[in-house]
Write a structure and sequence with these properties.
8 helices, TIM Barrel, 3-stranded antiparallel beta sheet, 8-stranded mixed beta sheet, 13 strands, 20% strand, binds iron/sulfur cluster, alpha/beta
């Protein structure tokens, strides 16, 4: 059988697991992490990062074991590279929704590892509730099936555009073209998208490559799609690399702004990350780490000064 969830399209013999280590050929394709999140936290939504989705709110955030990528620089490798155990308590989709309500969360985020590998669980959680917002934080390496289904139950996605090099994606077991095509399709389908790039010294931080990413967002998605440029810290198998210097982040920020992107943010580095009105420059949202204050927006999420609406998911 061919697994339908990600672009690896693993062809599985009976009892064989796919590359993610969580989907196998049993009675059909079975997902062994269904109902077994290995991490469940109440996070500020800014931590995803999503800066234009319900700012200042809490998001019930869950992830399972496993991933369809095996990046040597993974910042979440304890979870993503772990083998599934099923020893965690069984949490039904309805129970997850209940936990979100009990903790005053306004959204549920499938994050920490790749949600496409636990697609049936993520979908059932979203379909158990229509009042909360449903969010994915993802590498975007979807099958056509997953990409077509996602807009039916996901409100917002942060997708990693890890580099703009086919070789880079090949090394981590992905495909740049697939991720780019999926980003375009989801944007066209009306899902709110924010893009993140983890800036790894010497691996993806050349001026040319960053210009290509910024250009892709501006021309193929929209200048209003936020670009989060995130600082790398040595982790997992990439301990020999240096942390991202602040200067590189600031240069990347300038590249994003020069490409015409309205919203460029620097993450993981302790800098303030305010949202400014692209029309008049007024501060709309003041952010300090994961704390947001909506200081320049009216009740309709328009700029108090010039009335330009801010793009995002706000209600
Ligand atoms: S989710 Fe992807 S990696 Fe996992 S079995 Fe399916 S196709 Fe393979």
């Amino acid at each position: 059988m061919t697994c339908p969830y990600c672009a690896h399209a693993c062809k599985l013999e009976v009892n064989e697991f796919g590359k993610c280590g969580v989907n196998f050929h049993g009675k059909g394709i079975e997902c062994v992490v269904y109902g077994h999140p290995e991490a469940l936290n109440i996070d500020p939504i800014e931590k995803k990062p999503l800066y234009h989705v319900l700012p200042g709110s809490s998001s019930l955030s869950l992830g399972t074991a496993g991933c369809n990528f095996h990046c040597d620089f993974c910042q979440n490798w304890q979870l993503s590279q772990k083998k599934p155990s099923q020893k965690t308590p069984l949490l039904s989709p309805e129970k997850i929704v209940q936990i979100a309500y009990d903790n005053n969360c306004e959204s549920i985020s499938c994050t920490y590892n790749e949600p496409a590998i636990f697609f049936p669980y993520a979908k059932d959680i979203a379909n158990s509730d229509k009042k909360l917002k449903h969010i994915w934080v993802s590498n975007g390496f979807y099958s056509p099936f997953t990409c077509k289904e996602l807009p039916k139950f996901v409100d917002a996605i942060n997708i990693d555009l890890k580099a703009f090099s086919k070789d880079f994606y090949k090394q981590i077991g992905g495909d740049l073209d697939v991720v780019c095509k999926n980003l375009i399709k989801l944007h066209e389908a009306g899902v709110w998208i924010e893009v993140t790039t983890l800036l790894i010294p010497g691996r993806n931080d050349s001026k040319k490559e960053l210009e290509a990413i910024a250009d892709f967002i501006a021309k193929n998605l929209s200048k209003t799609v936020p670009w989060h440029i995130s600082a790398f810290h040595p982790d997992y198998k990439a301990l020999d690399l240096n942390p991202t210097p602040i200067q590189s982040l600031q240069e990347a920020y300038k590249i994003g702004k020069d490409a015409g992107l309205n919203y460029v943010y620097l993450g993981n580095c302790g800098l303030t990350n305010n949202t400014f009105c692209p029309e008049c420059g007024n501060i709309l949202i003041k952010r300090d780490y994961f704390h947001s204050e909506l200081i320049g927006l009216d009740e309709n999420f328009c700029c108090l000064t010039c009335k330009r609406p801010l793009e995002g998911v706000f209600s």
